[in-house]
Amino acid sequence: MAEIKIKKNIYYVGANDAERRIFDQLIPLPDGTTYNSYLILGSQKNVLVDSVDPTKKDILLNNLKNLNISKIDYIIAHHGEQDHSGAIPDVLAAYPMAKVLTNDKCKEELMDMLLIDEDRFFIVNDGQEVSIGDKTLKIIFTPWVHWPETFVTLLVEDKILFTCDFFGSHYAFDAEKWLYVNDKDLIYAPAKRYFAEIMSPFRNVIRKNLEKVSSLDVEVIAPSHGPLYKGDDFNTFIKDCYKEWSSENVKNEVLLAYVSMHGSIEKIAQYFINSLQKRGVTVKAFDLASADIGEIAMVLLDAATAVIGTPTVLTGPHPSAVFASYLVRALRPKTKFLSVIGSYGWGGKTIEFLGNLLSSTGAEIIEPVMIKGYPKKKDIELLDQLADKIANKHKQLGIT
Ligand code: FEO
After folding, report:
1. Which of 245, 279, 301 is the last residue before a domain boundary?
2. Is the C-beta atom of 149 inside 6 A of ligand 1?
3. Shortest-distance atom of ligand 1 to CA 225
4. Are 204 and 270 in a shared domain?
5. Are 34 and 148 in a shared domain?
């Protein structure tokens, strides 16, 4: 890779993974991703900021070689997850004098997951400043963006905030051609998708972290996935996005995630969508046979209500509906109301099963509608009643 300079003595040395299509064997990556790593050359010490996914370790090591780097003093590990830490053992092997600069929590993770020896660590605390000669690293703990150990580093004199997952996006930009976000519309969806998938459950803490970093004097926000943000306009843009996404605000929207085996649920879902729309409620519907769970997670950042649509199979909900319900529960969304529209042939425990699964979300469960077979006139009335209840609940929240 050609030399990519951010500022004097500060370089981008990360790796592009444009072909990657799934993360954690769970999260779709329609735009690929990058593992951003940065090199800071201080007058006394050289610092690598995060590493890359282990599959891309050769790219990182080659980037360092191309810059003729013979000495690294610190490798900052902001986060234990392997997409940033996974190549640290290789960097430690290539640079035997290097220490991993991190906090106690992350040290434990890296010793457990990557088998790094205890004597290779340099432990820092919240608020600590570490001099590397003419530059200063200011350590700021920001837990739960995205694991409990996560922190960020402000390179004080250069006003660069290295944030790892915080403010990241899975977007495989070409760092040799462009580094900084220059089109807010382009990055909005990847950044929102990223927040929805990994940050959303930790909204309370993220609001506090946002306040913590908002008071810093920052020119460049340098995350470890996706492009960087430079200047007040773009920095304010991403911070405002985070403010909105981490808030508890919801919209007059229903997420309808459904699966249909023989057409009954499809018919029920289509009728229900129309019924809600007639009442002024926006519906974002997903057929679980082909849905992208990242898009479902994004809708859960806005929708006041989520409804699961499922047939009964083998006496319970369809496995796809169980997966969607489990996802809803795991993401701990802002969603205020939940319900189920279902069908059955001869019986089963679909409602009981989903009720148990969803009860810990804290959302109010609105009485589900279960329909025997294909929907009939009395079933249509029940669906209208459910749509009425949802529309009224939204009105009571003042969202219309
Ligand atoms: Fe990009 Fe939580 O790792």
Report:
1. 245
2. no
3. 1
4. no
5. yes
* Cα 183 to averaged position of ligand 1 atoms, centre (Å): 24
Domain match, 196 and 337 both: no
Ligand 1 mean position, distance from CA 78 (Å) = 10
Confidence of residue 399 (pLDDT cuts 50, 70, 90): very high
Q: How far apart are CA 111 and CA 117, in angstroms?
A: 7
Examine the domain organization and report whether 223 and 255 are in the same domain: no
> Is 367 among the domain residues?
yes
pTM (2 decimals)?
Answer: 0.95
CB-ligand 1 contact for 109 (6 Å cutoff): no
Task: Find the CATH number of the domain harbouring 227.
Answer: 3.60.15.10
Distance 175 CA to ligand 1 centre (A): 19
Rounded to 10 degrees, the C-alpha dihedral 343/344/350/352 comes to 100
Is 165's C-beta closer than 6 angstroms to any atom of ligand 1? yes
Q: Is 20 in the pocket of ligand 1 (CB under 6 A)?
A: no
Please say if the pLDDT value at position 26 is more than 90: no
Does the beta carbon of 146 lie inside 6 Å of ligand 1? Answer: yes
**Closest listed residue to residue 355, CA positions, set 295, 308, 294, 313:** 308
Which amino acid residue places its CA nearest to atom 1 of ligand 1? Answer: 165
Which CATH number covers residue 305? 3.40.50.360
Domain with 368, as residue range(s), is 251-395
- Residue 340: the pLDDT is 96
Average pLDDT over residues 129-134: 98
Q: Which residue, judged by its Cα, is nearest atom 3 of ligand 1?
A: 81
Mark whether 209 and 292 lie in a shared domain: no
- Centre of ligand 1 from the C-alpha of residue 91, in Å: 19
Residue 197 Cβ < 6 Å to ligand 1 = no
Q: What is the pLDDT of residues 239-268, one digit of tens each?
A: 999 999 999 999 999 999 999 999 999 999
Strand locations in 13-98, DSSP E?
15-17, 22-23, 27-28, 33-35, 38-41, 46-49, 74-76
Answer left, alpha or beta for residue 68, where phi above 0 means left and psi between -120 and 50 means alpha. Answer: left
Q: Residue 193 and residue 200: Cα distance in Å, rounded?
A: 10
**pLDDT confidence band for 201 (50 / 70 / 90):** very high
Res 27 pLDDT > 90: no
With contact defined as beta carbons under 8 Å apart, do 259 and 287 qualify? yes
